[in-house]
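Q: I have four molecules that I believe assemble together. Could you output structure tokens for the complex as a whole instead of separate predictions?
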Amino acid sequence: MSRPERGHISGNDALLVLETIETCLAADSDQDLYETVIPCIQKLFSFDYASLTLGTWQAAQRKWSPQALYSLNLPGSFWESYQKSNWIADPVVAESLRGRPHQHWSMTAGQTILDTGETRAPPLHPSAALLMDYGIYSGYTSAVAPAGPGESCSMITFCTGRDRGLDPRTRDILSHLTPHLHQALLRNQNNGKAPDILLSNRESEVLNWLKLGKSSWDISMVLGISERTVNFHVYNLMRKLGAINRPQAVAIAVSRGLIGLD
Amino acid sequence: MSRPERGHISGNDALLVLETIETCLAADSDQDLYETVIPCIQKLFSFDYASLTLGTWQAAQRKWSPQALYSLNLPGSFWESYQKSNWIADPVVAESLRGRPHQHWSMTAGQTILDTGETRAPPLHPSAALLMDYGIYSGYTSAVAPAGPGESCSMITFCTGRDRGLDPRTRDILSHLTPHLHQALLRNQNNGKAPDILLSNRESEVLNWLKLGKSSWDISMVLGISERTVNFHVYNLMRKLGAINRPQAVAIAVSRGLIGLD
DNA sequence: TTGTCACCTGTCAGAAATGACAGGGCGGGC
DNA sequence: GCCCGCCCTGTCATTTCTGACAGGTGACAA
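A: Yes, here they are, computed for all four components at once.
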């Protein structure tokens, strides 16, 4: 367990950061994200464009696949073009996922300059050319690593149309904020789905035994009903969940939070 | 979306709160919790005892079942006695779960006084008598509601051996901290289990198709191998996961984070 | 070389699940 | 009274899964 040093923010900054973290915790819709969280961040430091993307990061395959996207002032056409390019080949994304979570970058003619002083010369990745086409010249990009295997991670970028150097205060603020922005994105994504499947008591009960590997006969013994009735409940709950067999029913139920993980 | 007013903390407090939130984010073992997070909180306000419990809260049954417990200066015998009593009948817990997440309480002879001014007179709940037996007279208890259905929630208590009144600053600090303490507890709990089950590429692949409700034949078509081989992989992954059939294999894999929820 | 491991394939009997048919009772809301 | 959801039960044919038997390849490390 190690924590980076962050000595560049004042008490007043800290209060604003706390307020922003609160808005992240309270945000439970896309609207909240745009109308409450983003304005709160704008009180902390200035930026012209923002992109908050949530996706999966497969360590084994070194692959980053964005799944949800929130952007501020970035036209849809930018994302269409960007999606077509290979994310992982973007030098900033690549560096992020290589263990440098917080980065500052800027562009000069044909070069991407990272905050390590490193420059990525031509052949320039298409994404860099794309950024310059849209008039974006510098920004901060943070990656929030997935909490566990198979979980989502975020790539969070705030950028400007001017060529600005790295500001330690902004960097420190971002290192405080990004984990909570990630949580907010994650929560929002989960709110999107889940259209209220209601199982009856018996169905939940049967489902919980299924999860534990019990067969219909086993369950019939536990519940004191006939095996046929257990199959009846299984059939109904599969229909409600939209599953075509038991493994899928269990998977859907767990992902919808209808039964605990245990 | 609504946020409570919190006007009782200073810029300096805010910096310390941010630091504490950082320790919560970085804590990934029980040791971190005791040696880094708790001392950090002690820099913010003083307390003699603490208990951080993580458990499940079944809204339908109004039932709170603690699953993990971290305590500071509270002897094991206290918890043994407390566990035997009915948690939900504890007036503070009951109030918490009724939608008052942050509470201050104190004891006088035979009474529990809540911060609403309400008093819970005898017959006193056994837990109250128990607290007084151990010399605990007042404290703050916060409940962090589960993020989604089937998810865990926390009950977090900081208390003292003296009869102290409600301090708005402490209350505000706690309302900032508790969501992150909850996250830390949650993360620690998940770190506790998961003894590294390693599936081969093919096994994960097969597992992911199982989760989607595909039969062995379906999977054999997708992967271009024989149905027998699919069964072979399924047999192996069930053995590795300790499952006796496919539904259980999927449930275990999801709970261990070996495959995504989707 | 020998060993291990992932990967692949076959057969077979018995167990389990699926999905259709049929029927019954009980309680609550309109 | 009727409808609806929940709960319960039966039979049957077909499909799928389980768990044992048997065997093979190629890669990589000790």
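A: One point stands out. Chain A touches chain B through 55 residues (CB under 8 Å).
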